[in-house]
Structure formats: structure tokens, C-alpha cells
Design a protein that fits this description.
The complex is a heterotrimer.
Chain A: E1 6-15, E2 18-28, E3 33-37, H1 44-52, E4 58-63, E5 66-67, H2 73-78, E6 81-83, H3 96-104, H4 110-114, H5 122-130, H6 146-159, E7 164-168, H7 176-190, E8 194-198, H8 202-208, E9 211-216, E10 219-224, H9 226-231, H10 233-240, H11 247-254
Parallel strand pairs in A: 3-8, 3-9, 6-7, 7-8
Antiparallel strand pairs in A: 1-2, 1-4, 4-5, 9-10
Helix pairs in contact in A: 3-5, 3-6, 5-6
Chain B: H1 2-32, H2 39-57, H3 60-85, H4 94-116, E1 132-135, E2 138-141, H5 142-164, H6 166-176, H7 178-183, H8 188-210, H9 222-235, H10 240-260, H11 263-280
Chain C: H1 2-29, H2 32-57, H3 65-85, H4 92-97, H5 112-135, H6 141-160, H7 163-166, E1 172-173, E2 177-178, E3 181-182, H8 186-212, H9 214-224, H10 226-230, H11 236-262, E4 264-265, H12 272-285, H13 291-310, H14 312-329, H15 334-349
Antiparallel strand pairs in C: 1-4, 2-3
Helix pairs in contact in C: 1-8, 2-8, 2-11, 2-12, 2-13, 3-5, 3-11, 5-11, 8-9, 8-11, 9-11, 12-13, 12-14, 13-14
The chains are: A alpha/beta, B mainly alpha, C mainly alpha.
């Protein structure tokens, strides 16, 4: 009887007449690891901007029975919607522990806020383990390498207890090993959460996506399993240009099938 | 009806002074994010340039015409000096430029006090600007009409320069997207310096205009700097036409509020109106649209 | 754990030393005149504590603290003038320039209780209104600085423009008593100094608690990445407004104590120039630190008095150059020199700390979320 799923109906975003997202309909269920792919300018990031309240949108975006369109950013976040950004955005001067503690803190009372933190809260300790930063809790987040900043951001979403996680290119700039770890981490996270990932990395997508939505020019072009989307001639046309394409060509751009 | 015409003219007159004071600020704040508190002292420097020019030449008419370009040069060079010595190393923390330039303002003010004395001095207006112009039974002082014309001319020259010259294109490119402008081969360093020269030079012109309004003293600039900044805030960043609308609207509104209440209450009411306006348009009248997250 | 304990002892020792200096050494070593001056500096230091919180930690460049200082000061001055005039009496300066008697809005401040409550509430209230109006609409950075400055300008013009009720540009002065105590009695003046010392120490303790608390961390987070905080479900406008209100609260109390200690308040103490002037001590001491603003404010005020006594125009030049040089070349203030020094010492004493080792990704596996 889970109602915590994401349902977008006719979501449209336009900037001064330029329609960046055009009547997108989309639903993502908990347990799903939904990848949002598409060429540059397809409207992927704008779509999660719209859901998280960063840009104005029309239409309807419902999560857990609440309407998100028209709400303020922090209200949407309080409804259990969390997101990351293309460039990892953490509080550089605060330590890893402080970063996570702030993310965990929105339900705290004003009185707790005015007190000093004593010890490490349980949910923070557990998350630090999960994202593998246990030894680095007291370091300023600003000096972490890029990959670890991304993990810290994901960790912040976890302690925030977000039920809908939207990640914007989480593995950009990571090594192959780090990508693998991130993928496995995301799989575990997705077991009881709704996860949407914007990604350009086709190999990563192929390895970890449970389902894929392809956006093109602000519209949903195709949706389904990785294999189904790869085989879709419209998707091939968008990525490779019109005409027939050999399997090798498709594999080179969209990733090989059958893994 | 008569009251209305007089008050609108008063407002336009106040607005034209605000515009002269704010044009240069809008330019430098828009391009570099620098909040130049010393802009008011550049205005003061322009006014004293007119005073000195008049002392040397004697002829009020000739010295007014000559002091406009000289004051532009003097204030502009002061601006470049400020940019080269202090501001260029501070572009990554624009908020701090406010305090640094406030220090510059203090020093310039004290310097003026030591050189010219604390008491106000007068610059005589030329004969062809004395008295009013009569139109339909209303009397408009010629000095105010001259300032209005000067403000419009300064804006027109600046707008044309931005639109049609290559420097103008470079400035607009830098305002809209600094990294892109740099990678397109524009030297944003030298563009910044030239912008600062022009912006500060306009303060000098404003200073010359102010000598027509009354006596000048070393703290002349402090009276104008805050309102000039409010014009920039209301007008929005990145397009100088916002400053034009804001200056004249603020001028007319404050003239009207001052007429219906008192001068001391008017300042508070205008402040409240500006805060209220920012509730509706926090980015000002015009704003550059970007898609970047803070 | 031992470091926490040690730091706690160090803090207690620090407070004890400060208390000893203020309550024992200063009254013994300084003439009554100098003690009064030090009391005035302590008032500036109170404003500085608040600015350190709002500007250093919260990133809000508050250029209008003179407004809150002035509200506190004028409220106190009004009460003292009314008390001097006796029940139902008219303060001397009013009787001199007009025959209208006491304006209606002065009347409540005949009561000491009402005055004290107003001093504690009104500055924070004004700051809260302006803070919410601007921060909620995401007006920040330079715009906020300019607005706070414009408020100071408007406030000073309002005071000057109403001489019959505020004393105009001369302000309010010539107070004889303070809540029943004679202000000409040196013992009472020393008591005022002790009150100011105690209040300042309490404010430093409050600021310390706030900086170390989770709220303090949140405030820094808002300063450095306001948008990110929003996505964690907080409203940064509220976080910032609270810090701004606390800064105003401190400035208001400082103003209220300034009046009996200095004996005058005028628009010269609250306008644009003094409002920005409050910041230079904070900047020199180190805006993000706890004690930097306090010590910086006292040092700058002391230097100001000393220099003005010898070369009147010298102080303006020095203040100007301090703003230029400290902000441009030493944004962290003198405290950052100390930091650089201790950093250098530790680097000389022991080998550099190992760079953070990347975590073995294997650690990630096998842990349940």
C-alpha cells in the first residue's frame, strides 16, 4: 500500500517562450532505479529542477500524495524529496560529520538546534558507514576528492530521509571502480525508495538501470527496460542520426546489450 | 493642476540628478559586482574640479563647458587608480569591495577637507543659465532643465556606446557571461578597467551638474550615494535602462511624498516603498536571466 | 574527550581572566575619566559581537547596526530625560524650543519597565521585519547591505528632522539620574561600568554557545551555500533572520548602556558613517572568530580616541586606510595571522598530516542501508 511514488502529469517548463520541458508524463515506483537519459538540452536536469521546485513549472507532480508544483523548495524537501547537483554541492568549510548532521537535522526542535552536538547521531553514524567515509568524518568537506563529495551528497540525502532521490550525473568524473561502488550503493538505496538518475554515462546506465526514460527536446521519447530502449529506432535516431544503424554502431553509443 | 506640473517637474529634476549619480554605478556594479562607495566622492571630486576650473578661468560659461570633460577625466582616472590598486584583486569577493571603497571615501573626504576646507564653496552659474523658462504660465529654472538635458544626454551617449562600439559589445559580453567572454578572446581585465573609467567619469559629470544646485562641500557625495545605490537596486542589474526608469520613478515618488509629508518622513516612506517593491520584484525592474544555481 | 574538557577549562579560565581584568584591574588602574571611556568601548564591543555573528558567521553585511544601537540609545535617553523632568514634567530641551509639551509617543517611556522591555524587543522586532522582508524574497549580498545602509540613512534623517521630539542634530544629553541613581556620583559611574562589563561577558558567552551549536553550523552552511540548505528542507530566510535579530538585540542593549555612560546620543552616533564604523574593529579582529570582533572593536575605539586627541584629522585617514588595507589584504583579520602562525608551528614541529586516503570501495559493500 505504498503511496510514495512519483507521478508527473503534463509537466511543462518554459523560459521566456522556450519550452524546455514539454508535457512530460512519468511515473516512478519505489524500488525502481529510473535513469533519465537524452542528448544535451533534452530537458533532463530541468525536469528534476521542476520537481524539486528550483524552476517554475505547470502541470502536476505528485509524490506521496502531495502536489509539488508551485511549492517552495524547502517545503518540497520536507515532503521527502531530495536531490543532488551536477557539481557536487557540499558545505565546504564544515566537516563531513557537520554536513551530515545538518542534513539530518530538519526535524529537530529549535531547542536542539541551540545546543551543541554531543556525540554522533545514530542515523549519521550508520550513513557514514554506508558511504564509506568513516575515517574522514572530521575533515572539512571541501578537501574531499570529487567522488567522495558525490558520496557525501548521497549520504546527506539518506540522513535527510528522502523518499524520492533525484541525482544529477552522480558518477561524472568517477573512476570505474568508484562507479561500480556507487551503482551498488544506489541499488541498495533504491530497495525502499524512489530513485531518479540523470546520466550521460551509458555503460553505467546499462549496468545499473532497472528502467529508462529517454527525453528529447523536452518530450518523453521512449520508456522501458534498457534493452527495449536501446532497440528503439527513435532513440537510435536521436543519438545516431536518421537511417539504419549496425549493431556495432548502436553498441558504441548506447552500450552493448545482454549484460 | 499647477501643483501636479510643479511636482512632476521637481520629480524629474531630482530624478535626473539621481540618474547622473547612478549611471556609473549601474555600469560598474552590473559588470563587476563592485559596490563602489567612493563613487560619491568621485562626484565630489567632479564638483571641486568645476570649482578649480572656474577659479582659473574666471568665465562661468566657458568653465562650465570645459569642466564637464575635465571632471570626467579626473574622476575617471581616480576610478582607474582605485581599480588597479585595490579592486582588481577583490573580484572574487564583491561584498568586501563595499568596505574597501568606503575606506577610500573616508580618505578622499578628509583630503578634500584639508585642501578646500570644511565650509561649502560656490561655483557661479553662467548667465545663460540664470532665471526660469516660462512655458504656459509655469516657470522652470534653466539650471534644472540643463541638468535634465545633461542626464538624458549622458544616458543616450552611454546607451549608444554600449550598443554600437566594439568596447560596448565587449562590456555587454562580459556582463552577460564573463567566462565565455574570456574564452572568446575578450580581455576582461582591460574591459573592466575601461568600464571603471567610464563609470567613474560619469560621477565626475554628475559632480559638475551638482555645482548648479548649490554650494559644494567635502561631504557632498554622502548625500547622494545611498539614493544612487537604491536606484541601482530598483533598476536591476545588467541593463542601464532599468536605472533610467528607476531614477525618474524614485525622483517623482520622493518629490510627491516630500510634498505631501515632510522631508524627514519622506526618506522613511520611500525606503518602505522600495522594500515593498522588492517583495514583488526582488531582482529589480530588469534582470539578466541565468539558469545557474548559486 | 580530554580535549573537550581541556577546552572547557580554557574557556572558563578565559572568562575568569576577562572578569578579573574588567572588575578588579580596570577600576584600580584607570582614572574615572578613562574608565568611562573604556565603558564606552565595551558598548561598541557589544555591537561587534552581534556583527561577528551576522556578518562573520552568517555572511550578512549589516551596514545599519546604528539603527538598532540608536533605537536602544534613544529609548534609554528618552526615559532618562523624562525621569529627570519628574512626574508629568517636560524635558528641558523640549520646554526650550516648543510649548507643545511632551509628545504622546514619549509618554509610555516615563515607566522604566516599559523602556527596558522596549529596548529588549524593539530593535530585534525591526530587524526581524526587515530580515524576513528581504531574505524571504532572496534579496541578499549587496542588495541587503545597501538596504540596511539606506535604513540607517533614513533613521538619521528622521532624527534630525524632528528636533522638538528627538533633539534634532544635537541629540539628547545632559542626563542627571539613572533609575534613581545620581549619574554625577563616581560610585554610580563605576557601577555602570560593571553593568556594561557583565553584559558584554554574557553576550560573548551567548555568541559562543550559538557558534558552537547546531544552529551555528547551520548558519555557516547558509552563508556558504544557501540554495543547498533549502534543498535539505530548511528555510534559510529564518536561519539568517534569527542571527540578524540577535545582532540587533545586542546593538540595542549596547545603545541603551552607551547613553548613561557617555551622557549623550545624537544622529552622529547612529548614521551611515558610525554604522559602517562598527565593522572595522570586527574586520581587524577577525570577523568569523568569537573574540576577534570584541578585541578589535575595543582596540579601534581606543586608537580612535587617542589619535583624535592628538591629530584630529589623523583618525579619519587611519580609519580609511584600515578599511582599505585590512579588507583588501587581510580579510581574515589579525586572527588569521594567529592561525597562520600556529599552522606554521605545527607544520614545523611534526610531519605533515597524511593526505586523506581514498576509502577502499570494498568497504561500501555489505552494509545495509
Amino acid at each position: 500500500m505504498s503511496v510514495d511514488y512519483l507521478e508527473l502529469t503534463d509537466v511543462t517548463v518554459s523560459f521566456d517562450g522556450f519550452v524546455a520541458v514539454d508535457s512530460v508524463n512519468l511515473s516512478v515506483l519505489p524500488g525502481d532505479l529510473r535513469f533519465l537519459i537524452g542528448p544535451n538540452g533534452a530537458g533532463k536536469t530541468t525536469l528534476i529542477d521542476a520537481v524539486s521546485g528550483l524552476v517554475k513549472a505547470t502541470g502536476s507532480a505528485r509524490f506521496g500524495g502531495h502536489e509539488l508544483v508551485g511549492q517552495k523548495v524547502h517545503r518540497i524537501a520536507r515532503l521527502g524529496v531530495g536531490r543532488t547537483f551536477q557539481t557536487a554541492t557540499v558545505f565546504e568549510e564544515l566537516t563531513v560529520l557537520q554536513n551530515l548532521d545538518i542534513a539530518a537535522g530538519r526535524r529537530r526542535s529549535a531547542l536542539t538546534l541551540l545546543r551543541r552536538r554531543s556525540g554522533v547521531p545514530d542515523e549519521v553514524a550508520a550513513t557514514v558507514e554506508t558511504i564509506g567515509l568513516t575515517d574522514l568524518v572530521d575533515l572539512p568537506a571541501g578537501i574531499l576528492p570529487h567522488g567522495q563529495k558525490q558520496w557525501l551528497e548521497i549520504g546527506m540525502l539518506l540522513v535527510q530521509d528522502a523518499k524520492l532521490l533525484m541525482l544529477d550525473e552522480p558518477v561524472a568524473g568517477m573512476s570505474a571502480e568508484e562507479k561500480d561502488e556507487t551503482g551498488r550503493l544506489l541499488h541498495r538505496i533504491a530497495e525502499d525508495r524512489t530513485v531518479v538518475i540523470v546520466e550521460h554515462d551509458m555503460d553505467f546506465m546499462r549496468a545499473f538501470a532497472t528502467s529508462v526514460t529517454v527525453l528529447h527536446a523536452g518530450k518523453v521519447l521512449a520508456e522501458g527496460s534498457v534493452a527495449a530502449v536501446q532497440a528503439d529506432p527513435r532513440v537510435q535516431e536521436v543519438y545516431l542520426g536518421p537511417g539504419q544503424h549496425s549493431e556495432d554502431e548502436v553498441a558504441a553509443v548506447l552500450g552493448a546489450e545482454g549484460v | 493642476m499647477g501643483v501636479l506640473v510643479t511636482q512632476v517637474f521637481n520629480g524629474l529634476s531630482v530624478g535626473s540628478i539621481l540618474l547622473l549619480a547612478a549611471l556609473g554605478l549601474a555600469l560598474t556594479f552590473g559588470q563587476m559586482g563592485v559596490i563602489n562607495m567612493a563613487h560619491g566622492e568621485f562626484i565630489m571630486a567632479g564638483a571641486y574640479t568645476a570649482f578649480v576650473t572656474n577659479q582659473i578661468l574666471g568665465s562661468a560659461g566657458l568653465s562650465l563647458v570645459l569642466s564637464l570633460p575635465i571632471a570626467f577625466l579626473v574622476a575617471g582616472l581616480l576610478g582607474v587608480l582605485l581599480e588597479v590598486t585595490l579592486l582588481r584583486r577583490m573580484y572574487h569577493r564583491p561584498l568586501d569591495t563595499l568596505l574597501v571603497t568606503f575606506g577610500v571615501a573616508l580618505v578622499l573626504q578628509q583630503l578634500a577637507r584639508d585642501v578646500f576646507g570644511t565650509a561649502g564653496v560656490d561655483v557661479p552659474a553662467p548667465a545663460w543659465l540664470s532665471g526660469p523658462v516660462e512655458v504656459l504660465g509655469f516657470a522652470f529654472p534653466k539650471t534644472r532643465l540643463f541638468i535634465l538635458a545633461l542626464a538624458i544626454a549622458a544616458f543616450a551617449a552611454l546607451a549608444a556606446g554600449l550598443r554600437f562600439t566594439s568596447l560596448g559589445r565587449r562590456i555587454r559580453a562580459t556582463v552577460q557571461n564573463r567566462p565565455l567572454a574570456e574564452s572568446a578572446g575578450i580581455s576582461t581585465r582591460s574591459t573592466d578597467r575601461l568600464t571603471f573609467f567610464i563609470g567613474s567619469g560619469l560621477a565626475g559629470v554628475a559632480g559638475v551638474a551638482l555645482t548648479l544646485m548649490g554650494s559644494i562641500s567635502p561631504n557632498l557625495g554622502t548625500g547622494y550615494i545611498i539614493n544612487a545605490f537604491l536606484v541601482v537596486v530598483v533598476g536591476g542589474v545588467g541593463q542601464i535602462k532599468g536605472a533610467v526608469i528607476a531614477a525618474f520613478v524614485l525622483g517623482i515618488v520622493s518629490a510627491w511624498v516630500e510634498y505631501t509629508t515632510t522631508a524627514s518622513i519622506a526618506q522613511v516612506i520611500v525606503f518602505a516603498l522600495i522594500v515593498a517593491f522588492l517583495q514583488v520584484r526582488p531582482q529589480g525592474i530588469y534582470a539578466l536571466k541565468t539558469r545557474s544555481l548559486a | 574527550m580530554s580535549t573537550l574538557l581541556k577546552s572547557r577549562w580554557a574557556v572558563l579560565a578565559g572568562f575568569a581572566i576577562a572578569a578579573l581584568l574588567l572588575f578588579v584591574v580596570a577600576p584600580a588602574a584607570l582614572s574615572p575619566f578613562r574608565l568611562d571611556l573604556l565603558g564606552k568601548y565595551l558598548c561598541y564591543a557589544m555591537v561587534a559581537v552581534g556583527i561577528g555573528l551576522a556578518w562573520g558567521r552568517g555572511g550578512m553585511l549589516t551596514l545599519g547596526q546604528g539603527v538598532f544601537f540608536g533605537i536602544g540609545a534613544y529609548l534609554m535617553a528618552m526615559h532618562l530625560k523624562l525621569a529627570d523632568a519628574g512626574p508629568g514634567g517636560t524635558p528641558d530641551f523640549m520646554a526650550l524650543i516648543s510649548s507643545d509639551g511632551v509628545p504622546g509617543w514619549w509618554e509610555p517611556f516615563r515607566s522604566g519597565i516599559v523602556t527596558i522591555i522596549a529596548i529588549l524587543v524593539l530593535p530585534a522586532l525591526v530587524a526581524g521585519l526587515l530580515g524576513l522582508a528581504t531574505f524571504r524574497r532572496r534579496v541578499k549580498g549587496a542588495y541587503f547591505a545597501i538596504l540596511s545602509q539606506a535604513l540607517a540613512a533614513a533613521f538619521a534623517i528622521l532624527l534630525i528632522g524632528n528636533p522638538t521630539s528627538t533633539g534634532g542634530s544635537t541629540g539628547l544629553n545632559n542626563f542627571r539620574g539613572f533609575f534613581g541613581f545620581n549619574l554625577y556620583d563616581p560610585v554610580n559611574r563605576q557601577m555602570l561600568f560593571f553593568i556594561a562589563s557583565g553584559v558584554l561577558l554574557a553576550m560573548v558567552a551567548l555568541a559562543r554557545q550559538l557558534m558552537l551549536s547546531r544552529y551555528g553550523e547551520l548558519l555557516v552552511a547558509c552563508r556558504d551555500a544557501e540554495e543547498r540548505v533549502r534543498f535539505l528542507g530548511y528555510d534559510p530566510a529564518n536561519v539568517k533572520t534569527v542571527a540578524y535579530m540577535i545582532a540587533a538585540f545586542m546593538a540595542g542593549i549596547a545603545g541603551a548602556l552607551f547613553v548613561p555612560i557617555v551622557g549623550i546620543v545624537s544622529p552622529n552616533d547612529v548614521g551611515i558613517v558610525p554604522s559602517i564604523g562598527f565593522l572595522i574593529g570586527v574586520a581587524i579582529g577577525g570577523r568569523t572568530t568569537l573574540l576577534g570582533p570584541v578585541l578589535g572593536a575595543i582596540a579601534v575605539a581606543w586608537a580612535g580616541t587617542t589619535l583624535s586627541e592628538t591629530i584630529p584629522s589623523g583618525w579619519t585617514y587611519l580609519q580609511g586606510f584600515l578599511f582599505m588595507l585590512v579588507i583588501a589584504f587581510l580579510p581574515g583579520g589579525l586572527a588569521s595571522l594567529g592561525g597562520a602562525w600556529s599552522g606554521l608551528r605545527t607544520r614545523l614541529r611534526k610531519p605533515p598530516p597524511p593526505s586523506p586516503t581514498p576509502v577502499d570501495p570494498a568497504e561500501l559493500t555489505g552494509v545495509n542501508v
